[in-house]
Amino acid sequence: MDDPFVACPYNFAHRVPRSRIQAHIVKCQPNYPELDICPYNATHRVPKLEIRSHVLNCPSKNAIFPQDKPPKLKGSLTTPKPILQKDYLPETDPNHEIWDD
C-alpha cells in the first residue's frame, strides 16, 4: 500500500488517499465552517483558535526549516598581490609569444 489514507480536516469520517487529499479539501470546503490554512502545509486546516499553536508545532515546519542548520564556515580571505606592469617581464613568461620575428 504505497498511498496511505488520511482523514479530511473538515470531516474525520472522510478517509482519502494522501495523493487525493488536496482535491478532496477543495470539494469538501464549501460544506463546512471556515478553517485557517497552515502556512507550512496547505492540507492542514485548523480552527482559528488553534492556528497559533499549530503553527508553532506543525510537523511540516521542520521540512521547510530544519533545526539542524549547517555549521557556519569560518575563514579569512586575503586579496592576492596584484601583478604590476614593472614586475612582468615577457621574456620570463613561458606563454609569451613573439610575433615580430
Structural description of this entry:
The protein is an alpha+beta fold. The chain is built from three helices and four strands. The strands form two sheets. It has a two-stranded antiparallel ribbon with strand order 1-2. Strands 3-4 form a two-stranded antiparallel sheet. The model has no long low-confidence stretch (mean pLDDT about 85). It comes from Parnassius mnemosyne. It holds the Pfam family zf-U11-48K. This is CHHC U11-48K-type domain-containing protein. GO terms for molecular function: zinc ion binding. Keywords: Metal-binding, Zinc, Zinc-finger.
- Uncertain runs: none
Side-by-side strand order of the widest sheet: 1-2
Please tell me what the overall shape is: elongated
Would you count the extended β strands for me?
4
Count helical runs.
Answer: 3
Whole-number average pLDDT? 84
| Structural class by helix and strand composition | alpha+beta
User: Rg to the nearest angstrom?
Assistant: 31 Å
Q: Oligomerization state of this entry?
A: single chain
Give the SSE order as H and E letters: EEHEEHH
The major β-sheet equals: 2 strands, antiparallel
